[in-house]
Amino acid sequence: MAKLSVFSQFFLVLCCFVAINAMPNPQGPKGALVATAESGHFSYDDPNKWKEHNSLCAGEHQSPINIDTRKSKTAKFAPFNFHNYEKSLPENLENNGHTVQLTIDNLIKDLPTISGGGLEGPYEFAQMHFHWGEAEFGSEHKINRKQYAGEVHIVHWNKKYGNFVNATKHNDGLAVLGILIDLQDRDNIAFRHIEHFDGIKTASKKNEKLPYSVPLKDLLPSNTASFFRYEGSLTDARCNEDVIWTVFETPVHISHKQLEKFRQLSDDHGKPLSKNVRPTQHEHDRIVTYSGPEQKTSELPLVFPIYNPAAFAYYPFFPQNVPFMMVY
Ligand SMILES: *[C@@H]1O[C@H](CO)[C@@H](O)[C@H](O)[C@H]1NC(C)=O
């Protein structure tokens, strides 16, 4: 080994470089989680940078995803049971700097729960929050690359883990219902109470009691029997892979005017909270399951517009963020 050729030396250096990069992050996912998730400071200006502060965000079971209905497998799950979803319970709103979050007064004993729908449960309601965009594209999940105007997430935790924080340590710890929001001309009165933003224009820990409440049931889509199921993560910068996702195939509808109110809130730097959408993540080894009637309505021909051939050409190389939205 006295004299290595230039090529061997180069090869040696290359090997070391690869080995160093393959070493596990000494800080580990736990350390990163404490550093970012609990400080709660993150921005939607560049969600691709979250992984620089939190290695969990670079995981292989991240959310949201684009759901390709031609690749999903079909199953027949039992219908969902929505327990206490029809009850009017005292509700609070909070602007936490990233979203508008609705919670139910914690003095309530018998909180809404969900079970069935292929979930082992029950899962208890924790909170509900919203995602929206600067223009008409603000959903986090996409179906066949179609991005909707916004998305509601109803977050539940698995009661067998005792409390929310304990549940977040298990990959079946949370069950989130994702409801896509489409636009319509008239207001959706079920959402009217959620636009009580006067007291929460700026981000703070302050809860605003809603003057009246609407049962969670009224915020669900008309059809909850058709949905997509996959295992993923929280879509904020915590990135914990502890969520069993349900994305309903049928959207709910609100008006432009209603959606506009969300964009008038401010984030924790006092800047407009004009968007809070994480881009779709790679599905890696995951398979999405579809439960519902034979014909996926999302697969009906009308959903596919004329392809932009230029955009289509990129598809095999950039499976995420294909500029299909340009043609919708
Ligand atoms: C949460 O987990 C801790 C540690 O495992 C346990 O001691 C505690 O009892 C759990 N809390 C509940 C409410 O189950």
TrEMBL record:
Q: Which cofactors does it use?
A: Zn(2+)
Q: Which key words tag this protein in UniProt?
A: Lyase, Metal-binding, Signal, Zinc
Cellular component per GO, a single term: plasma membrane
Signal peptide span: 1-22
Top-level lineage group: Eukaryota
The protein's annotated catalytic reaction(s) are: hydrogencarbonate + H(+) = CO2 + H2O
Alpha-carbonic anhydrase domain location:
40-292
A family per Pfam:
Carb_anhydrase
What the entry lists under SUPFAM superfamilies is as follows: Carbonic anhydrase
InterPro entries associated with the record: CA_dom, CA_dom_sf, Carbonic_anhydrase_a-class, Carbonic_anhydrase_a-class_CS
This entry's Enzyme Commission designation comes to 4.2.1.1
Record bears the keyword Phosphoprotein: no
What protein family is recorded? Belongs to the alpha-carbonic anhydrase family.
Q: What does this protein do?
A: Reversible hydration of carbon dioxide.
Q: What is this protein called?
A: Carbonic anhydrase
Protein species of origin? Daphnia pulex
